[in-house]
Amino acid sequence: MNDFIRDVGSQLNSYYDWLVEITPKFLLAVIVMLIVWILAKSMRKATDIRLKKRMDDPLLAGFLATLLRLGILIAGLLFALRILGFAGITTSILAGAGISAFVIGFALRDIGENFLAGILMAFKRPFRVGDFIETGNPPNTVKGRVISLNIRVTQLKTPDGKDVYIPNANIIKTPLFNYTVDGFLRLDFLVSLSPKQDYTMLIAEMEKAATTVDGVLKTGRLPAVRISGIASGKPDARVSFWIDTTATTRKDDAIKSDVILAVQNVVEKYSVNQ
What gap in Å lies between CA 59 and CA 118, rounded to an integer? Predict the structure, then answer.
């Protein structure tokens, strides 16, 4: 019994000695990680601001700043492990990086795929912040304005106000339509015309009415009205017009609503006069 008590006491003393020895190192490692976390956060913010001033690509600037933050955090973690005396673990982590990458990549292949896709899109992609895009395979397509791009997903804001987070790999692997890559967006709608009218004059007045709406391009890409078909003896006209998304602060749906009202007023006016 005495031997058992003596062994327990010896074991507790060894734990106490280990705790006394490791406590200063643990506190130092915590302090180091706090400093590294604050440094990484500050460096990311400063780098993001500096890159956005020098680069005409806020998405790429934000992505590079995020990668820098991750690099600093990983370096700080490895340094903290060395302080705790786990240099062997650090060496093993570095030495086994290839095997670990293979195992983790296989187990988390979707996350890894999205990460690599995010890197590819950060450096070369067919959209910018504010562009209106459509992606996905029909009928499961998503339309919206690009809000942000991070390591795993791209955030879109749909016309009805929903925030959609699309995995980067999905964007890489599916068709993507950019409606505002050059800043210009075309909108159109159908109007039913009354029969037995002077359609040539009516079409001219409809085009003129569209140009009066604020936000519609009045030079270069002018509004156009074309007869698209006939239903029950009444011709249908397709009204098309362009807006410059970089030059107007008005929403495209608000501009389209005003154009519809302006054109409909002209159609009703001609219908009454006939």
Answer: 11
Beta bridge pairs of residue 179:
none
- 247-265 per-position pLDDT tens digit: 777 888 889 999 999 999 9
- pLDDT tens-digit series, residues 9-31: 666 666 666 666 667 777 888 88
Q: Mean pLDDT score of the chain, rounded to an integer?
A: 79
**CA 101/CA 221 separation, integer angstroms:** 52
Please compute Rg for the chain using Cα positions: 31
What pLDDT, in 10s, does the model give residues 121-138?
767 777 888 888 888 888
Q: Which CATH number does 125-178 carry?
A: 2.30.30.60
Per-position DSSP letters for 93-142, written without gaps between them: HHHTHHHHHHHHHHHTHHHHHHHHHHHHHHHS-S--TT-EEEESSTTS-E
Q: Where are the domains of the chain?
A: 2-95, 125-178, 184-273
Q: Which helix (H) or strand (E) holds 76?
A: helix 58-83
pLDDT single digits (tens) 80-103: 877 777 665 555 555 555 555 544
Determine the 3-state secondary structure of 86 from DSSP: coil
Q: Are strands 176-178 and 132-135 parallel, antiparallel or unpaired?
A: antiparallel
User: How confident is the model at residue 226, as a pLDDT?
Assistant: 92
The third-level CATH classification (topology) of the domain covering 184-273 is: Alpha-Beta Plaits (3.30.70)
Report d(CA 21, CA 36) in Å as an integer: 24
Stretch (H or E) spanning 230: strand 224-231
8 A C-beta contact, residue 177 and residue 135: yes
In terms of residues, how long is the chain?
Answer: 274
Element (H, E) at 14: helix 2-54
| pLDDT value at 232 more than 80 | no
